[in-house]
Design goal:
The chain has 1132 residues and is α+β, with helices and mostly antiparallel strands. Strands 23-24-25-26-29-28-27 form a seven-stranded antiparallel sheet. The model is unreliable at 1-22, 400-411, 557-561, 685-710 and 1054-1062 (pLDDT under 50). Component of the Mediator complex. Keywords: Activator, Nucleus, Transcription, Transcription regulation.
């Protein structure tokens, strides 16, 4: 529009317009801005908005990246998967394009919306200015109220009257209003030169410069410091005075972003805006850390200026060191943030499900976890790591140089650099002074921690070790994807190499041992295994470096033969359990071998199965070389199978017993017992028997033929040629062996070796079981076990003969199977007592038969599965009783203890008298070995009434019982009997004291503290009398408040703090006098024997403890009553 019309009142202005030139509006001689000028003055508001071009660019890049990914991954997919994947991608991409189209349509009104937002911001700014003006006016009003008028300025008034102008303006007005004269170019150049001279002097003579940024230049009034691969910073000085410090000007970070160049615009090398202001503020704060506060600084009211920081004595400020440490950290943190951004962008480009990016809170450690796997199902037993490994990039302080680091940031200074740094400090600071700060040597540490069992394969350490310096952060090429791909490629090669070694060199992969069977094909981009199965059939095994999943595809005609679906199924299952790769490759070979063996078994009319529902952990018992199985069920024993185990070299034969597992939805069989069959030995024995029956002229020819025809050599072409005759004999042998399998299983579970002997050498059945005979029992070898093996760890092993027979019974009939174990004893102890009877063969229990004439103990077990445990349990009891009975029978002669005699013995219980009218009965508990408890029952057999049958040793039974549990049984028994005899007088006198106290209603308690220590506790619970058994059957009677060990008594008296006098026993008043009086009263009696008074008691013979104990107890009791009466009268 070239002309404008204006409607207003009287106007003195002019309106001019020229074609192609914005019209100029003049009103009343004042220029009025145009509409375009007013719009340019509006503030620009860009919050919450992005450029349409950037949105379009990112959408196109995402679509291109997804297309590239599909081009790489779709060739490995089946046709159905390719179609489904492509259709899903088309639908998803169409939605994104439609959304983008809608955004483009909306963007047509972006200019109007932007103008409205700018106007809104302008109005808000105007509103804020109005409010600020109101507040300022109010503050001025509040400040002027208390102000006073100044005196009249007469001189200024005269100047105005005489000259008509001001001649004496205040200095403050000149400084605020009158602009200073600008400097000329020459003055500016001279000023910059002086500043450069001051900086040059300070850098050369005063300030300590870190060697890492010692490369600097001075120009344009600034000092430019360059730290290679870190930053280039420009600083300037505040002045030439000593207290004038440095201030920050600008910085440029020295790095180059690699990989996707579109991310460079997000990370400028030169910070601008708020980032630069933040860096400048932080750098200035560090440069002025020790500078004094300006004197003319007027803080706002209520703000206190902090006191300046003072340097310690002998310390010189080093501001350049501080600013270097700060900028170094900023540069390295900036680079780490770039790497984090690149990793997050990788996730958005299809890596999200397989790559995990983590940054620590302090933003110094970046962790990339690759090959993330989804959590396995709860019922899955395969333990595969949830990730393939981690790549950690950290900013650390340099201490050692053992790990790979960035070339730009060496781990520490060299010796030459260190000497130069020391020389600089000495020359600038002096000999005895040091800088306030030291250089922090930071570096990037790149640490690769691969899972050595990733994909279920244990990888050698050297296979996942990269050369030193291979993994490093290069500031000239910041690309986290290249670092990650190096790691992924190395890890993939290591895993495939491990698979190759496993297939070629492991025992279970001997089928692929020839050189060209497995080849590792690797280039700079990808790697895979080429596995030759047979003929022209080749499969390729690869690892997707993005997902970490194994892939198997064929290169021959396998797909044409209908096997393609199998590859897809096995690939999915293989990624759940990757160690099954070798099993898949061996499956084709194993199927043919299994078919041949199954054909032979069906020809013989045997029931066979290729698979039984047996858990994998039970199948592992067949050994690591087992590749396949054929289960042949025994018709006589449905729970037993003859198993043909297929290995890489030959057949192996095993006899197993299975059991159905309860509590499972699917009927599962668990292997209860497993035994290997040496078919060569079996066939050789049969052949030898046939040779013995053949004429002599035929023996040599038969031997030569049998060497080659009985069983082929392992690994030979005929190693899997199974003859029908061999299979028939194996089946017959297994039926005879099953009867002993259950017994052998028990022995193996206890690691007990066993052997077979001829039936004639084993002897017949024990007495009482002779009627259980069979015509076949002599044709089966007997099972023999060494007593040192079977009874290892049990008590009384020396009482048994070397050989122990174990004979299963009823295996030839339909009755319940039993097992009898026969043990011949070395010494014979005739049973005594009522239960012994008059016969030489006694049966003290249902499971024990004892032949006294032959000294044979037979243990009968009705449960075959627990026969060994039941025998050991019964033997532990019987052997201990036998040893105890033998030792008691020998005590009278060996120890001259005429009153010690055996009263009763029946292999279960031993009762003997240890003193006249005092006996003890010992019975073993239900435990097997030495730590099992003994049960002691004390009694008095000769006394008639029940009350007087009480034996005082009953109170000491827990302590006496423990004596038998320590050490060998023989010495322990001798110590038990000796203690019982020696402590009998003590327990008798304590019993008399207790009975007398109950009759006189005295509150006295007697109890045992150990097997040799007894105590009488008086009613006040503060005083007690101790009886201690000493060597030589002597007894120590003493005040219980005193210890036998002076050191312990001193510590007790120092550390013990009784509460209300209840925790520590008190000394008995005048105890020494009471002892002396007691001995004087008993001195006339010759029965007290030798008595030795001591400080806190006396020592006497055991025979005199009855008289002395009772007398001393009475005197102490009377004395305590007197003391109690005296205390009561004094308190009242």
């Amino acid at each position: 529009m070239d002309t404008y019309s204006q409607v207003a009142g009287p106007s003195n202005g002019n309106l001019t317009s020229k074609s192609g030139i914005a019209p100029e509006i003049v009103m009343n001689g004042v220029h009025e801005p145009t509409l375009e000028e007013l719009e340019r003055e509006l503030p620009y508001v860009g919050d919450g908005q992005i450029h349409l071009g950037e949105l379009v660019s990112r959408t196109v890049q995402t679509i291109y990246a997804e297309l590239t990914e599909l081009a790489e991954t779709m060739p490995n997919m089946s046709d159905a998967n390719r179609k489904r994947t492509l259709a899903e991608w088309v639908v998803k991409t169409k939605k994104q394009v439609v959304k983008l189209y809608a955004v483009v349509r909306w963007a047509r009104d972006a200019g109007v919306v932007q103008k409205a937002m700018n106007v809104t911001a302008f109005l808000m700014d105007q509103n804020a200015q109005f409010e600020e003006a109101i507040n300022r006016l109010k503050s001025a009003k509040d400040g002027l109220d208390p102000a006073r008028m100044r005196n009249h300025d007469l001189l200024t008034s005269l100047d105005v009257l005489t000259t008509g102008s001001y001649r004496r303006l205040p200095t403050i007005i000149k400084q605020w209003i009158v602009p200073p004269d600008p400097l000329t170019d020459e003055e500016v150049a001279n000023t910059l030169a002086e500043v450069e001279h001051a900086m040059r002097y300070r850098l050369r003579m005063i300030d300590v410069i870190p060697l890492e940024m010692s490369k600097y230049r001075i120009s344009d009034g600034r000092s430019f410091f360059t730290a290679p691969h870190l930053f280039e910073a420009s600083l300037c000085v505040r002045g030439a005075k000593k207290d004038d410090g440095w201030f920050f000007v600008d910085v440029e970070f020295l790095f180059t972003i690699g990989g996707d160049v579109t991310s460079m615009q997000d990370f400028p090398r030169k910070p601008v805006g708020p980032v630069k202001r933040h860096i400048a503020d932080e750098a200035d704060a560090r440069l002025a850390f020790y500078l004094p506060v300006p004197e003319n600084l007027n803080p706002p009211p209520g703000v206190e200026i902090p006191s300046p920081r003072k340097l310690p004595e002998g310390v010189i400020d080093a501001p350049l060191v501080r600013v270097f440490n700060f900028l170094q950290m900023m540069s390295m943190s900036y680079q780490l943030e770039i790497l984090w951004f690149q990793a997050e962008r990788l996730r958005s480009l299809g890596w999200a499900d397989y790559l995990k990016v983590e940054m620590t809170n302090h933003r110094r450690t970046l962790t990339l976890s690759y090959w993330i796997r989804k959590p396995p199902p709860s019922n899955q037993r395969v333990n595969i790591p949830r990730l393939g490994g981690t790549l950690t990039i950290s900013i650390v302080k340099s201490e050692t140089s053992s790990s790979p680091v960035s070339k730009a940031h060496p781990p520490h200074r060299s010796a030459k650099a260190q000497v130069l740094a020391e020389l600089q400090e000495r020359s600038k600071l002096g000999e005895r002074k040091r800088p306030s700060d030291t250089v922090e040597h930071l570096r990037f540490e790149v640490k690769w921690e691969p899972q050595r069992v990733a994909l279920g394969m244990s990888i050698p350490f050297e296979a996942v070790t990269l050369p030193e310096g291979e993994l490093r952060v290069d500031p000239d090429n910041l690309d986290v994807e290249s670092l990650l791909r190096k790691v992924l490629f190395r890890h993939s090669v290591a895993i495939l190499s491990t698979y190759q070694q496993q297939l070629q060199h492991a025992t279970h992969t001997i089928a692929f041992a020839y050189p060209t069977a497995v080849k590792l094909i690797s280039d700079d981009v990808s790697t895979h295994l080429r596995v030759h199965l047979c003929a022209d059939e080749v499969v390729v095994v690869s690892i997707d470096m993005r997902t970490g999943r194994l892939g198997i595809r064929d290169t021959g005609d396998l797909a044409a033969s209908g096997r393609a679906p199998r590859f897809q199924t096995i690939t999915e299952y293989l990624n759940i359990n990757p160690p099954l790769l070798a099993d898949f490759l061996l499956r084709l070979r194993l199927n043919t071998i299994t078919d041949l063996a199954e054909q032979k078994a069906e020809y013989l009319g045997l029931q066979c199965y290729r698979q039984r529902n047996i858990p994998q952990e039970d199948l592992q018992r067949f050994g690591p070389t087992a590749k396949g199985y054929l289960f042949i069920q025994l018709s006589m024993f449905s729970a037993n199978y003859l198993v043909l185990v297929i290995t890489d070299l030959e057949f192996r034969y095993a006899l197993i017993e299975v059991k159905r597992q309860e509590g499972k939805v699917i009927d599962t069989l668990g292997i209860e017992d497993l035994g290997w069959i040496d078919v060569r030995r079996m066939r050789s024995g049969r052949t030898q028997m046939e040779l013995n029956q053949a004429p002599l002229s035929r023996k040599r020819k038969a031997e030569d033929a049998n060497d080659e025809e009985i069983i082929p050599e392992p690994g030979s072409p005929a190693s899997f040629k199974l003859e029908s005759q061999v299979l028939r004999e194996l089946y017959a042998y297994c039926c005879a062996r099953v009867a002993y399998t259950k017994v052998e299983h028990q022995l193996k579970s206890h690691s007990i070796p066993s052997s077979y002997v001829k039936p004639a050498a084993a002897g017949g059945l024990p007495p009482g079981l002779g009627r259980l005979q069979s015509s076949l029992i002599n044709a089966i070898p007997a099972l023999c076990v060494k007593s040192s093996d079977l009874l290892a760890g049990a008590e009384g092993v020396e009482a048994a003969m070397p050989n122990i027979r174990i004979i299963p019974l009823h295996w030839w009939a339909d009755q319940r199977m039993e097992v009898v174990t026969c043990v011949k004893l070395k010494y014979v102890q005739q049973p005594l007592g009522k239960r012994a009877g008059n016969s030489s063969v006694i049966r003290p229990s249902k499971r024990i038969i004892y032949d006294a004439n032959e000294a044979v103990v037979s243990f009968l077990s009705e449960d075959v599965d627990k026969c060994v445990n039941e025998f050991l349990e019964e033997w532990a009891k019987v052997s201990k009783m036998v040893v105890i009975a033998r030792e008691v029978a020998q005590m009278a002669s060996e120890k001259n203890w005429g009153d010690v005699r055996l009263l009763s013995f029946d292999l279960q219980t031993v009762e003997f008298a240890y003193a006249p009218d005092y006996s003890v009965s010992i019975t073993c508990g239900n435990h097997l070995f030495l730590d099992g408890p003994y049960e002691l029952y004390f009694s008095r057999p000769r006394v008639g009434n029940e009350q007087s049958r009480y034996n005082p040793h009953t109170e000491v039974e827990p302590f006496m019982r423990n004596i038998l549990r320590h050490g060998s049984l023989g010495p322990s028994l001798h110590r038990l009997v000796s203690l019982l005899r020696e402590t009998l007088p003590i327990v008798l006198v304590l019993q008399e004291i207790q009975d007398k106290a109950e009759q006189s209603n005295d509150n006295v308690d007697t109890f045992a503290k150990s097997a040799e220590w007894f105590r009488v506790l008086y009613g006040d619970f503060k005083h007690a009398l101790d009886f201690r058994l000493m060597k030589g059957s002597r007894v120590l009677v003493l005040d219980a408040s005193h210890s036998l060990f002076p050191a312990a008594e001193d510590a007790k008296s120092k550390d013990s703090k009784p509460i209300n006098g209840l925790l520590v026993l008190h000394p008995i008043p005048d105890f020494s006098q009471l002892v002396s009086e007691t001995l004087k009263d008993l001195a006339s009696q010759k029965t007290i024997g030798t008595v030795h008074p001591v400080d806190t008691g006396l020592i006497c013979d055991g025979s005199a403890v009855t008289l002395i104990g009772k007398a001393l107890y009475e005197r102490v009791l009377q004395k305590l009553k007197q003391v109690l009466v005296g205390e009561s009268s004094s308190s009242s």
